[in-house]
Amino acid sequence: MEELTGFLTTCWLQIILAVAASYLISSVNTSIIVTQVVLHKDIRTMGSGNAGFTNVLRCVGKAPAVITFIGDFLKGIVSVCIALLLTLTIQDAQADVYRGYLMYLAGLFAVVGHTFPIYYKFKGGKGVVTTFAVMLMTDWRTLICALLLFAIFFVISHIISVCALVNFTLYAFSAFLWRYLDFCGVTSAVSTIPHPTWPFVIYSAVMALLMGILVIVRHKDNIKRLLNGTEKRIKAKTKEEGDKA
Fold first, then answer.
1. 16, 65, 111, 163: which sits with the fewest CB atoms below 10 Å from its CB?
2. Which of 98, 108, 91 is nearest to 197 (CA)?
3. pTM of the prediction?
């Protein structure tokens, strides 16, 4: 508790700047912009109504979907990088640990900005791609685990929502496991933060849990369709379908 209190009191300015920057940057929705440019339509009125990669792939096409993916991924990268740069100004013996705290916090608000963007009446995407980017920046090992799970369940189901739900149900466990192994000195050589404290182990798991819950909640309609057996398998929009649209 003392460590977290120290982080809040020592880094309060960096916290405000990182949270604000992450949220505002991530509120820029690539899928809405790309669809408007390509089809002059709002992606939120098409297909599933979600402003994200999968819906763009189904309703607009592969190239716009790739652009959407890159834009959503960069949100997480840029947000955490801003937090990383802000921590360079911290003059404290705990600077390394505080850096980890701020990076996770910026990552969380990157996901919040993507899912509830202020520029689009708080109606955004589901946060999967952006959270993957946060995983890469905060602990790349959790991303490797997520991608392996994603690949396995995609081969089995060909349903993106199933892959996402499995991933983000297990994200907090993965984050806790790797940080705990670091704490025990088992995997310190490959960790982005070589010597995490016990409070940081718990904190990273809580941040992962919050991001996971946010993504799962944004998949509530997908969960209903999965239960009803009406969730669609992934299928890119063909050129002929694009011409008809």
1. 16
2. 98
3. 0.88
